[in-house]
Amino acid sequence: MLHTDLQYESNYRVRAYEIDSRQRMTMPALSRLMQEAALQNVIEIGMSFWDLEPHQVSWVLNRQQIHIKRMPKMNEQIRVHTTPAGFLRLFTLRDYRVFSESGELIAHSPSVWLLMNTQTRGLASRPPFLEAFDARMPPREQCFARPKGKIPAPQQADFTNHYRVHWHDLDFNEHLNNTLYIQWMLDPLPPEVLGQHNLTFLDINYRAECQLHDELRAEVQQAGEGEYLHRIIRVSDEKMLANARNIWKPTAQI
Q1: What is the mean pLDDT of residues 168-173?
Q2: Domains of the chain in sequence order
Q3: I need a surface site. Which of 136, 186, 217, 228 has the fewest CB within 10 A?
């Protein structure tokens, strides 16, 4: 059990609009649930966007790894747990755990966040009031290892989709919602992968903001058996805004 008063958890029942044709929660839906838990957590403990707003800074997700033992099914009751997991220079760490109703750990995720200056859109240092949270963080041995090493970017596009960012795709920072990066990266995969395999690992690096009316291109390269590399490109300048690596296994192997 974690030793911190900063943790947050909530029970949740999987909705019909969050599942695929096999009645299992999709990865975009799971990532939205994690993001919502993090938001409620920072509101409760006083580290939210609105607490940071007077300091002209805001949280931005830099990297996240999601490990999936299995996806929850429609109407299944699950418990989502999250906590800040410490500071490291300009980085802030956050962990997620997803449990079944019986207490089985079915997914977990370490993530890395940065502070962005809301005026310059560049990186920012922590405001002094955040330093008080250091002593309340869980011990490092109780936290997940921080994601390390670079994620390789695709060298070719085996599968491609095109997108345009609309108003309802934006979050309260007025950039593309984090979960849509994941959805748009996965969408170009062939139906036989999405429909006949299970995603067991996702590692995503958010590199730059994506804003209203941006034209985007999602590219996927198959890097090996069940392994895919992804990236999202802004068409106007060919800048890579995010890249990811994921691993899929046939349903029979799960």
Answers
A1: 91
A2: 1-148 (3.10.129.10), 149-254 (3.10.129.10)
A3: 136
